[in-house]
Structures are given as C-alpha cells and as structure tokens.
Amino acid sequence: MVKKEKNGKEIKELNDVTVMFAGDSGDGMQLTGTQFSDTTAFLGNDLSTLPDYPAEIRAPLGTLYGVSGFQLHFGSSNVFTPGDNPDVLVAMNPAALKVNLKNLKPRGIIICNSDAFDSKNLKLAKYDSNPLEDDTLSEYNVFPVPITSLTIEALKDCGLKPKDVTRSKNFFALGLMYWLFNEPLEPTLEWIRKKFQNKAEVICGNEKALKSGYYYGENTQLFASRYIIAKATLPKGTYKSISGNEATALGFIAASELSGLPLFLGSYPITPATDILHHLSKHKNFGVKTFQAEDEIAGISSAIGASFGGNLAITSTSGPGLALKTEATGLALMLELPLVIINVQRGGPSTGLPTKTEQSDLLQAMYGRSGESPVAVVAATSPSDCFYMAIEASRLALKYMVPVILLTDGYIANGAEPWKIPHANELEKIDVTQRTNPENFHPYDRDENLVRPWAVPGNYGLEHRIGGLEKENITGAVSHDPENHDLMIRIRAEKIQNMQKIIPDLEIDGDSNGELLVLGWGGTMGSIIEAVNEARHRGLKVSRSQLKYINPFPKNLGEVLSKFNKVLVPENNMGQLAKILRDQFLVDVIQFNKMKGLPLKSFEITEKIAEILGGKK
Amino acid sequence: MTDKINVEEINLTSKDFQSDQDVRWCPGCGDYSVLAQVQRVFPTLGIKKENFVWIAGIGCSSRFPYYMDTFGMHGIHGRAPAIATGLKVARPELSVWVSTGDGDLMSIGGNHFIHACRRNIDLKIILFNNKIYGLTKGQYSPTSEKGKITKSSPYGSIDYPFNPTSLALGSEATFVARTLDRDTKHLQEMIRRAGEHKGIAFLEVYQNCVIFNDGAYSEYTDKETKSDSIIVLEHGEPLLFGKNFDKGIKLNGFNPVIVDLNDGIHSVKDLLVHNEFDETPVRAFIYSHMTDDPNLPTPIGVFRQILKPTYDESVVAQINDVTAKKGKGDLETLLFSGNTWEVE
Fold first, then answer.
1. Which residues touch A232 (CB under 8 Å, ≥6 apart)?
2. At what angle do helices A186-195 and A29-42 cross, to 10 degrees?
3. Residue B110's closest chain A neighbor by CA?
4. Fewest 10 Å CB contacts: which of A35, A448, B232, B242?
5. Average confidence score pLDDT of chain B
6. Which B positions 282-341 lie with beta carbon below 8 A of chain A?
C-alpha cells in the first residue's frame, strides 16, 4: 500500500523489515540498535533482535574483525527470529559494509557514512577501490550520507570536544532511521535526557544529532519514500522488551519468591553469561546473595554449600565454565542436593567463539561427568522463555533434590523480544519441604519419587554427614557394598526419570501424524517456526515441535516420533540431539546442522523441508 | 555472628560430638589427637550442637566430618573452603569449620584458600600438615622439603615448599596460628582460640603421618630437642626458648637472630615482645619464616589476630542497607518496571 505525504514523498506500508546497524565496536551500534528496538516495540510492533559483536572490547578502528552489528527484525505479525537477511544495512564504515553486504537482500537499502570511506578505511576493509564509486553496489539502493560532517556541523554550538562530537554520529544515523520508518523521536530523546542528566553538552549533542538525522531524511531529495509497519496484533496486556539473560535473572528472583527460599548465586564472570550476575547483583533488596567467586569451581562449590544450608542455590556460566564445574556437579548429584546450573552456550570448543551462539553443550550437559551421573537438563526456547524455564528448573531441582542444567544460548541470552509480563500472582507456587522432625530421620530415606529429605544445619537432632563417597541407601553411612552401589546408581537414574510425572507432554504444532515432523530443541524455535510457516505457505504439509525438557524427555516423545515417517532435527551443532534420539528411540532422524556462530537461517531449514518432502504436498 | 548462648544451658560434653562411625585412620596417626581435642573444645564454645558444620575436601584429614556428630560434608578435592564460604554466606549464624590437608589446601585448593583469607569469611580452617600425600600412599606434597625422596620423587623432590602460615599471613588472614599434634594442651588452646575468633581463622597443625612420613616433626616433639627447636608465641611475652628459657630472639634489621641471655651482653629487654594484635602483618611474617631457617627455632602459637568486618556480615549489611534505601523488593513491581507499554 502506498500513500503520498505533503512534501510529495511516498509512504509504503510493509509487513516486516530486517535492519542491520553495523560499525566499529566503539561506534555505539549496540546502543543504537537497542534504542531503535525499544521505540519499535513501544509502537506496537513485534520484534526480535540479534546483537553480534566481536570478542574484543575496542578492536582496532576500521578493521573487518572489529565490526559490531545489531540486527533487528520487526513486523506487524508474529516475528520469531532476528531475520535471515537484512532489508536495510546501516554501515558506519567500509568494513561494516564489507562484512554485512553478503547477507543483504537483493535490492536492499544501504545507508552508509560516506565520510568514513576514505583511503585509509578502504584499505583496512581491503577494498581496492571505493565501493560507493565503482559498481560493487549496483544491485542495491545506496544512500551515501556524509554522517560525520553533518554531525559536526549540527553540534557546533554544543560545547563538546571534537572527539566527543563525532561520537554522537550514531544518533544521526538513528534519527535518519526513525524518519525512514516513520517512528517518533520522543522515547529516545527522553532516554538521552535521563541517561546524561548531569551532562548538558552531551544531551545537546545527542539530541541535535538525532534530530538532524531525522530532518535530513525529511528535507533532502535523497529519499523519495519512507516506510510504515502496522502494529502487530499481540494479545492484550502490558509488555516490555526483554533479553534472555535478564529474563533468566528475573525468573530466579521469581522462583525464590515462589518457593519462599532465599536465592544464592555463586558465579564467575564469563561471556555471554555475565549479565545474569549483573542483573541479580542489582536486586539485593529481594535478599538475593550474589557471590562473585574466585573461579568457576568456587562458583558452583559455594552454591553447593548454600544449597546444603537450605537456599535456592544457582550458578551461571558458559561452556568452558561448565567443563570446570563438572566434578562439583557430580558431587551435587551424589549429595542429592538441589542446584540449578545455567549454561549460556557459546561457540566452542575451548575458548571458541565467546560472543557467538551455538547449541554444542548438550552432550556435555547430558554426559560430561565421571561415573553414572544423570542430571536433569532443560532448555529455554526464546528470550522471554528464559524467565519461565528458570522457574521450572528451580521447581525440578527443589522437588527432586538434584542438579538441573538449564541451557540457554548466546542468541536468546543477548537477543530481545517483547514480553507480555505475567502478574506475580499468576505464577504457580513451588512447594518445598525441609525436614525438621528428628524422629526416625535418615538422611537417605526415600519418598515415593525416591527423593531424600532436605535437612539443613541448625535443626536439632538432624545432624548428619553427606559426601562424595558412595552412601548406603536410607542410612547415609559410607558404603562400599556392591549391591548398595548398584542400587544407588539405579535410584539416582530413576529419580530423574520420575520427573516425567510432572513435566508437560510435548506439544505439536500441526497434525499429530504425517510425513514429516521438524523437531528442534531450545533456542532454535524461532528459526524453525518461521521455516515451517514458510513451508506451509508453499503448500507443504509439515508438523513442528520444540523440546524444552531433554533429560528426562516428555513421556509422550516416543509416541510422537512414531507417528511420522520422517523426523528432521535442525541443530546449531553437529547433531547432538539427533544422537540422543537415535540412542533412546532407535529413530533414524534426518539431521540439519550449522555451526556458524549465528542463529539458524529459516530459509535454509525451509529448503531442507522442501528437499525431504520432494513433490509431496 | 555465631549464635552464642549460655554454655551451661547447652550442657554438652565431648561425647556428644562423637559420631557412630568407626574412626578409620591408621593407628598412631596424629589426626586422632586433633579429633579428640576438637571434641573436647566444642562443648566449651557456647554454640548449639546443631549450629556446627564441618566441611572437608579429600584426603585423610578430610574424613574428619564423618567422625564428628555435627552437620558435615565430605566434599571434593580442594574445594572445602569454597563450599564452606557458600554455606556461611547463606547461613551466617552457623559455625563453619574446615578440615583439610597440605595436599588439599596448599595444592589443588590453593586458590580457594587464599581467597577465603582475603575475604575474611568467618570460617575456621584446620590444616593437618603432614608434608606428604597419605591417602594416595606417599607422594611429596607442596609442603614437603626440597630433596624429599618419595614414590613420585625417587631422586629427591626438586619443588620448593610452601610455608602455610606465611601464605595465610600473606593472604591477609585475620587469625593465623600454628600448633603440634603431640602438644595436646597447646593444640586444645589453639582450637579454642580459632573457634572464638570472628573472621577467618587459620590453624596449621604439624601432624605426624606414621606410615609415609614418620618423624617429620620429631625435632619439635622429642623431649631432647623440642625446647631448642620450638618457641611458643604468647601475647605480650618476650620471645624466649631453650631448656632454661635462657635464649631469645631479637631483630637485627629485618632478620631474627638468637641471643644468649647468659652472655653478659643481652637481657630480656633486648628481645622481641609478641603482639598478636599488631596492625601490620610484617612481624608475624618474619616469625613465620623462622621455620625455614634451620638455625632458628620454629614458632607455634597465635601469630596474628586482628578484627575487621567479615565477608558474611558485610553481605548481610549490604542487603540491609540496600533494602533500607529501596524498600523490600516486590516481585510484581519488579516485573512491571522499566520501559513498558500497553497492548489494547
């Protein structure tokens, strides 16, 4: 739909748009992207974001490896991913253009800071000639804007030092994007005033840059049209934009309230999980105790101590940190104490890709310990789902007295989406029993789920010893008895299986039987939903399901698998879930695997679906 | 702070702290002595039985919790101070004790040890230092002397050892003491002092391993030699030693030297006077290094005891402070805070 504005420019209505903001890692692209997302969300669009930044804090200027990007997909109907390929690329320098051009859609819009395309930057970006002047970009709609010089001109009266003036250029770009997508400046202006309240000249600079960018779009002949995206039809309620790490932190505060237990976090900083520690350390008025430990092992060990003391104890980390916590995780399961271990997965192995996403710790979470050592493993499917899965992980840990590993990933941890905020009183309470009666107390007594009592220090008559040495069932005395060891191994495994009684059945989107089921787990949900929707749009008949409970699996999983002729398992790894499915169900699933440090691209999954189904409709 | 009540009210005896487990250390092991003295001291500390917790790592000494009828955890190698820290932060009213060995605390657990000291977390750490790996049957440990011949060092160890007391002082522990397994009276006194300290208390026990390192401390415990090789530190007292207390220690610059009080030149007035409460750890550090000099006696006693806010009480204080300023947290308010918008 196209309308005409008074100044003769066109307004085109679009269903959804993907924008990529890219620049040097010091250019403020993450901030620009976040502001644009917040305003877009505020306007009522649905959205999904993907911050994509280098591991270095301030990589050398102008280099290809120093490019920081923020991708944002927003639209008027359900948006599930940050978008496969951007429609619009904002490139603050040649390196940003070079890195992102290959992903841009054909005939996509490029807005670039033409001032940055000097010989030095071109050389750093390994361009032999200026792409704005040769035919490199002939297939795109290119808008070269001298953003640096326009910003300097606009800010000349603000009293800022020259280097601070140019730092405002991201706001110029943001203002221009607000004009292009018909969005108001107010939310960002308000944010600037609040953020820099004691720095009048910074407020002046950022405000002027933002407005200049906006009016540049309005007044120059460069842009003949702009765009509008209708509000999404989201369920009624109060919303906010939330990242996965923030949702995780909120989820554990909620779990603490719902269980009535104080929350203890033992953690060591590690990308991309550190924000959980940041968020929780802010909320001390909820009685939250955050302990920044000397290392990963002390992080989990302190949590085990706190759990022994009766707290809701958690530890947060990423892949290499989970490896360091291996032995202590084994201790926690031997002690049969409740503990939640959050693993925000990143590209591995070893240091790998600290700032990029991957799903490659599933096997580590399942099996990465000495001995027969089953723990519960659950996964969150989206940024806001982290909130609910944090509560769920706590519930399972507390009810079954076991360690639970909650898997999220760099993509959903740092990405954001609008979240319909639940009311506190709508959340289900977590029942916790701590033993206080000394009569007939045995530390390894068993209830109907084989769970032992939680008897915390400070209770008279309940003094007992637990430890990593094998214990005699019921009494808890150290035991090397062969029969007892065999029994205890089976009990520890069965306890995990008993969780199937309370975890929900796997739900299927689409028919409950047929030719093809696409089965994912955790953070790939958005990509798979979009892929399946597109396949259906093309007339293909396909069902879809996403696993959140991996150990144990939902009890109906075997039955679900048996109802389809083929099962496609897309994963951001080499096929770790596929391996487990084959092992447990003897189903030869079809794998789809990418390990690029990025969310799966939905069009690639759609192609795979089409390939599997061939001509079948 | 530990929940203290009237001792008579509690009316505990050493028997109350004996668990039903058979003690399985080798006959003649120095660990028995520590266990007996701990069980003797605990009823006198004015702490309820159910508020004591023992946390241990791995090794002979780390079996200690099984033999105490208190709450206890036999953890994993080296991690006892970290587990204990989490417990104490979660439950500051508990009296949390760590039993550990020279392999457990000085080697695999070294990092947790120095950070527990640095933070001044209110834990009592008893190090059973037998200068050998016992449970793995006799390898040199981080406290074994250079040149030691063991199963893993058949040609002599080429490692320089740690001096645990120096390490504790260097890590800013607020209570640092050393004692001998064979000197039961002194051992008992040191356990009591550690138990009464508010903050991290580190007690190094020179403990004899009868199987793999027998006689490691015989110089300090044998009747003939001990008076010349041990010097007992006592607050406010000059550093005297020798059979007739006729030898003393004075400082020559930064170096401790022995003076003969019968030489007609020196008197007690020339000697160092021990001050446990010295603000700087410098002198305590000098004493701790006397052990490494074969010509000087080895000090036992309390090297240093100072008071500063503990980590666990600071955690609570900060929570109270933030709560007073922001008000008690409300989940509903928190969920709906930040930039929200309505969808009609």
1. A44, A45, A46, A75, A76, A77, A78, A79
2. 130
3. A294
4. A448
5. 95
6. 315, 318-319, 322-323, 326-329, 331-332, 334-336, 338-341
Whether the pLDDT of residue B5 is over 60: the answer is: no
Q: Which pLDDT belongs to residue A617? A: 52
pLDDT in the model for residue B9: 64
- Prediction pTM value: 0.95
What is the predicted pLDDT for the residue at B127? 98
CA atoms within 13 A on the CB side of A46: 16
Q: Please state the separation of Cα B16 from the chain's center in Å.
A: 24
CA distance B198 to chain A (A): 19
Q: What is the pLDDT of residue A233?
A: 87
192-211 of B, contacting A, C-beta below 8 A: none
pLDDT at A58 (0 to 100)? 79
ipTM: 0.96
Task: Tell me which of B335, B336, B342, B344 to substitute to probe the interface with A (most A C-beta atoms closer than 10 Å).
Answer: B335
The verdict on a CB contact (< 8 Å) between A295 and B111 is yes
Residues of chain A with pLDDT under 50: none
**Structural domains of chain A in order of their starting residue, each with its CATH number:** 2-229 (3.40.920.10), 240-426 (3.40.50.970), 514-613 (3.40.50.920)
Please report the pLDDT score of residue A615 as a whole number. 61
Residues of chain B neighbouring A284 (CB-CB closer than 8 A): 318-319, 322-323
In angstroms, rounded to a whole number, what is the distance separating the alpha carbons of residues B60 and B272? 38
Domains of chain B: 7-221+309-315 (3.40.50.970)
State the residue for tokens 């890219």. A22
